[in-house]
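Researcher: Please generate the 3D structure of the following complex. Treat every line as part of one assembly.
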Amino acid sequence: MTSALTVPDLIYDPSDPGVMANPFPVYARLRDEDPVHWSPSLKSWIITRYHDVRDMLLSDHLSVNRLVQFYSALPPKEAALLKDIIHYLNLWLAFRDPPDHTRLRRIMRHAFTAKAIEDMRPNIEDITEMLLDRMEANGSDQVDLIREFALQLPAFVIMDLLDVPRDMLDAFKEWSDDMAVFIGGARNSGDKYERAARGCQKMSSYFRELIAERTKTPKPGFLMDLINARDDGDKLTDDELVATCILILFAGHETTTNLIGNATLLLLRHPDQLARLRADAALIDRVIEEVLRFDGPTNALVRAVAQDHQLHGKHLREGERVFVMVNSANRDPRMFDQADTFDITRRQNRHLTFGQGIHLCLGAKLAREEGRVAVQALITRFPDLALDPDEGPEWLDAMVPRGTRRLPVRLGS
Ligand code: HEM
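Model: Done. Output below.
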């Protein structure tokens, strides 16, 4: 690599607990000193400035399809283990470039209508109230907000959307966590391939049966719309349907859990901002946007270089991996005034947390709605909600998602 241009003592180590808890100081250094940084330990490029991140997400010099190369480099034993998961992931529109991506997205937009998302609103409110009732009835002042609330809310919403019975929550959580260690790039998990293969096998069998059942006995709703979605007569194949259900379940729940968790943590750490929101509920839209910017669930997105090109004097070669650091871009003072200030009244807020360009998140409207309902209902129900003074948050050990595994709070009830 272009080692002469690499700043020698600038090391980005996402598995360092200090960096996990607060990656922003190292992002600031990367943006200023080495915005196109080669990480020898990650064997990847790290891109940290707003305009570079945005341009890269829009550029066809980069590809989302990095699985083929990854798979072909695996030793035979691991390749056999991961055969199924790679098969399904390869059918995700999130991992396809045009023209395959264009085809899948055209079909899927017939199911992801504004109406389908609006129809979910009463459901989101019911689920939120049910979870808050349960926490209150539990009688314990000390609660892990992730386990009792932030995790279950989006999981139930997405399960309802996909017609999966709510008593499957524990099984689904386990399968999706198993897949997440592989997809989210967890760095400290030794058996991640075995877990991912097991999770994928269970989840795909479940959806295959559910889709067969719905096709035989139709029932109106999002899943049926997805099965029936047609674009110019073209539709999703059975395998694509299974893969797409897994993608939606996957894309739709952990991200939103992290949005709710990060929002709660930020508001509790910034009591002045929380007080403003309590005084003016109409600020909730801007609160969610500011959480998405300031410490959102998308730490990084991953790409592969599709064509050799130069950026800030560095040569990016075909096949190399690129981490496009969205959370760093969202704190870039070249783009945002007072970028390191959490300000819920911010007006100019063109954060990149839902991506950019052709892969822009299909579930952004749903996620925003869930975030708004969850945060507003939580702070209303528990006016004295506070961080647990004895136990701090525990951050996820992952480079792509950003959120807490545990968020101990006191309900003050
Ligand atoms: C706060 C919550 C969420 C965040 C931060 C988020 C973020 C993102 C991002 C950054 C991308 C683009 C990935 C890339 O360019 O590589 C994306 C894509 C996607 N998201 Fe979300 N998402 C969220 C919630 C949801 C929900 C609730 C759903 C489904 C109901 C969903 C479905 C999807 C799908 C299907 C794609 C793939 C789009 C494509 O490749 O064309 N997301 N999301």
